[in-house]
Amino acid sequence: MDINPSAATATHRAGIALGSNLGNSLAILNQTLVALDRRPGIRVMAHSQWYQTPPQGPPQPSYWNGCALLQVSLAPVVLLQELLALEAQWGRKRSQVWGPRTLDLDLLFYDDLLLDTVSLQLPHPRLSTRAFVLLPLQEVAPDWRDPRSGQSVAQLLDGVDCTGIYSPYAMSSEEAPHLLQQRLVYQGRKFKFEVNRFRLPNHHEGEWECIRHPGGALAVPLAPDGRLVMVRQYRLLVQDWILEFPAGTLEPGESPSSTINRELEEETGYHAGRWQPVGQFFLAPGYSDEVIYAFLARDLERLTNPPAQDEDEDLEPVLLTPEEVENQIRAGLIMDAKSISSYFLARPFLTA
Question: Of these residues, 87, 311, 313, 324, which one is catalytic?
Answer without folding.
Answer: 311
